[in-house]
Design goal:
single chain; 100 residues; mainly alpha
Length: 100
């Protein structure tokens, strides 16, 4: 019985390692939810700011300000709190890579 449990646990480690491997498209995938307000590929048709072509550092700073309540918003202060620093960096890098 102990051998079966040990083998079962050992088989989980490669799966756990794969689950932690970041996808090369993680920024794009996370940024897809931003399209609701900021437009497809971060190109806003009006209302919300366009994000395409904005420097990553600028986007990261703005997201931190939303998280800390230092920047006014209708919903971004709530949305921003749902992302980790790594996720925000991935989103920011994606938008920075796009042409405005």
């Amino acid at each position: 019985m102990k051998t079966v449990i040990a083998c079962s646990v050992a088989l989980l480690f490669p799966v756990a390692a794969l689950a932690q491997t970041p996808s090369p498209n993680v920024g794009r995938n996370l940024a897809a939810t931003c399209a609701n307000c900021h437009g497809t590929d971060g190109r806003s048709a009006g209302g919300a700011a366009s994000l395409a072509g904005v420097a990553a550092d600028t986007t990261i700073q703005r997201m931190r300000e939303f998280q800390e309540g230092k920047r006014s918003a209708t919903v971004m202060h709530q949305i921003s709190k749902g992302y980790s620093s790594e996720q925000i960096a991935a989103i920011a890098a994606y938008f920075a890579s796009l042409k405005p």
